[in-house]
Amino acid sequence: MTEPTDARARAVRTSGTVRIVGAGLLGSSIGHALTALGVDVVLDDASPAQLRLAVDYGAGRVAAPDDAPGLVVVAVPPDVTADVIERELAAHPEAVVTDVASVKLEPLQALRARGVDLTRYIGSHPMAGRERGGAIAARADIFIGRPWVICRDEETSARDLAVVEGLALDLGAMLFEMRPAEHDRSVALVSHVPQLVASLLAGRFVDAPETSLQLAGQGVRDTTRIAASAPELWVQILGANAEPVVDVLDALADDLRGVASALRAPDSPGSRRAVADTIRRGNEGVERLPGKHGQHRRFDTVVVIVDDTPGQLGRLFGDLGELEVNVEDFRLEHSPGAQFGLGEIAVVPSAVAVATEGLTARGWKIASLND
């Protein structure tokens, strides 16, 4: 018998019935992923229309009164997370209950203040999402390769921990263990403040002249991509994690004031160094971000002009394959009003010459090289 090629198909860790409360983006995405693995998924949502939509799209089935889930996943907005966790722990006394809220300390403190027995509760948070929300935007693959934080405590049993870890691993995520306060400080820095910065910058475009916006390139699009997120959800997230977010914002505000002061008198002694140090420190910060396979390394970029016609991307990747050039990352920037795009191909430095010469010989136009 031929072994399945998908490792996840060979050893699915999640068994029995999984109940998902909240049929939005994360809840429905978990449902799609588990359903694809053959797991029985039941869905519940405060909105009948949202629930019906998630079921119609195949994220699971409608919950029945006699369901006996072994795992309950709470995927509801932060302002009701604690309430739903408490309810699910009481309604399903044999189940392990986890949640996927982006803030971990506030719901935990609320539950402890109520005297809820949290022996079977394990907080978790997949660092995955999209700018769009709801069941219609759900995708089974959004967790693959993404961090999934698990916040256990001394009362957590090894068996219950294995259930939540198995869920994350079945969905292709990478496990991280943190304390709730550590998690909240971390996401304030790498998720919550970046959302605010993107929104503040994009907000400057509202009253900007149209001619200015026509000059926008991929850099500003990258910087403001997440500004399209839903305000209603982010009001809850930021309110629940306010203290760590304010700490980062205050430090960032000091940095901005320092740069602004230097630029008010750019010829004054030390001003240019202050600006250069700001850019250099940003370089150092970017280099610390994990890259492909968790490597802290940078790649060179080959920029290729790609005609806006069917089959061009397939031909480009086919040519790169023939040249034995591994694509570490790829981004396509469309040029407004032009019938072509700029394909930015990230490669290891040693492959730049091979890619450039080989693609040129095959008729591709190279726009530029960046290091």
Automatic annotation (TrEMBL):
What protein name is recorded for this chain? Prephenate dehydrogenase
Prephenate/arogenate dehydrogenase domain sequence ranges: 16-293
Q: Which domain of life is it from?
A: Bacteria
Family per record:
Belongs to the prephenate/arogenate dehydrogenase family.
Q: Which organism is this entry from?
A: Microbacterium dauci
| InterPro entries in UniProt | 6-PGluconate_DH-like_C_sf (IPR008927), NAD(P)-bd_dom_sf (IPR036291), PDH_C (IPR046825), PDH_N (IPR046826), Preph/Arog_dehydrog (IPR050812), Prephen_DH (IPR003099)
Q: Which UniProt keywords apply?
A: Oxidoreductase
Under Enzyme Commission nomenclature, its number is: 1.3.1.12
Point out the coiled-coil segments of this chain.
none
Q: Which GO terms describe its molecular function?
A: prephenate dehydrogenase (NAD+) activity
Q: Which Pfam families match?
A: PDH_C, PDH_N
Fetch the SUPFAM superfamilies from UniProt. Answer: 6-phosphogluconate dehydrogenase C-terminal domain-like, NAD(P)-binding Rossmann-fold domains
